[in-house]
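$ ./design --mode recover --in tokens.txt
reading tokens...
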């Protein structure tokens, strides 16, 4: 090949590899950033290692230890737990929280209502012994049910595994369940493996924002996969992930299939409503700009959309209203609806545009 053509090809490939969403969340850098051969250095344990090691897979820390810190937009590891209060703001889109929020708030007073009570980080929920809406019937892409179809007494949710969100659900151990995912070398999110699934959520599809939605905009955000509801749910949608533990809130029979809804709809495209409906004004004006305050899912996750057309690209999701890890607000809400209108924020009006 001619040298100039070869140079152009290399540049082209570098550009493709750097495009948002076209690469997986693969770990890069020194092996020692995450691993240690003996969990010992100069007769002791390094300050950057976890104190309760050694850890499985020669890791220097556990899940929360590795993902603990403060996001600044340049960090190579997403921080989902902070020792001090993260900057959240009204909607979590302008501070230093990422798409899933932060587990910090579960460690605070009344934390049960603000975040998932992850084992090893917080005490079990004092009210709930199983996930709300858990029915044990939703199986993941590999045919495995959360909690193996039942929820053991006193069992808390974990980061990964049988009782967790990430990794394989037929493996109880969190480390084993996600084993190899961080080293995935693929470039396509097709759900075929942990590493080839959206955010290591086995079987789930989507397009990953390269900085995990640090201060997202309408042109830089995660693209969530969703489908308009049907008789058989699609097991690769972001909503189905939530349904694996909160099935009663998603089922056709339990939630209803049309207006008037028994429970708030998910897997429903707002484009199904009449052209004059308030939902066709999403996110509150005629621009139809994609809203990072109340994000919606799309059947096409091959690229990031900045505007919506109401053609299978305004699908209501669980995370349109909630953040999976935690927020400072009641029920993991993205905004402080509980204290509105006297205070707080009404993010509901992003979709319910006539009810502000």
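writing sequence...
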């Amino acid at each position: 090949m001619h040298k100039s053509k070869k140079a152009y090809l290399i540049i082209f490939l570098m550009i493709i590899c750097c495009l948002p969403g076209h690469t997986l969340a693969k770990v890069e850098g020194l092996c020692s950033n995450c691993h240690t051969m003996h969990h010992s250095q100069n007769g002791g344990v390094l300050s950057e290692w976890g104190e309760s090691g050694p850890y499985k897979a020669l890791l220097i820390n556990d899940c929360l230890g590795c993902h603990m810190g403060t996001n600044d937009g340049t960090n190579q590891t997403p921080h989902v737990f902070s020792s001090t209060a993260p900057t959240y703001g009204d909607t979590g889109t302008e501070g230093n929280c990422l798409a899933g929020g932060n587990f910090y708030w579960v460690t605070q007073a009344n934390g049960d209502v603000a975040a998932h009570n992850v084992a090893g980080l917080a005490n079990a929920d004092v009210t709930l012994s199983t996930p709300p809406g858990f029915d044990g019937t939703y199986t993941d892409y590999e045919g495995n049910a959360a909690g193996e179809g039942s929820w053991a007494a006193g069992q808390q949710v974990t980061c990964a595994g049988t009782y967790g969100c990430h990794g394989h659900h037929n493996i109880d151990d969190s480390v084993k369940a996600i084993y190899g995912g961080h080293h995935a070398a693929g470039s396509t999110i097709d759900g075929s493996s942990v590493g080839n699934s959206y955010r290591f959520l086995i079987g789930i599809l989507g397009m990953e924002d390269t900085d995990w939605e640090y201060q997202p905009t309408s042109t830089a955000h995660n693209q969530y996969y969703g489908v308009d509801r049907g008789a058989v749910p699609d097991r690769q949608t972001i909503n189905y992930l939530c349904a694996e533990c909160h099935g009663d809130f998603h089922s056709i029979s339990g939630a209803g299939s049309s207006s008037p809804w028994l429970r708030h709809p998910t897997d429903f495209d707002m484009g199904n409503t009449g052209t004059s409906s308030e939902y066709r004004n999403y996110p509150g004006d005629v621009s139809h700009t994609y809203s990072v305050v109340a994000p919606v899912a799309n059947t096409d996750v091959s690229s990031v959309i900045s505007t919506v057309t109401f053609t299978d690209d305004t699908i209501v999701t669980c995370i349109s209203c909630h953040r999976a890890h935690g927020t400072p607000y009641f029920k993991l809400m993205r905004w402080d609806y509980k204290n509105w209108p006297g205070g707080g924020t009404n993010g509901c009006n992003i979709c319910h545009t006539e009810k502000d």
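exit 0
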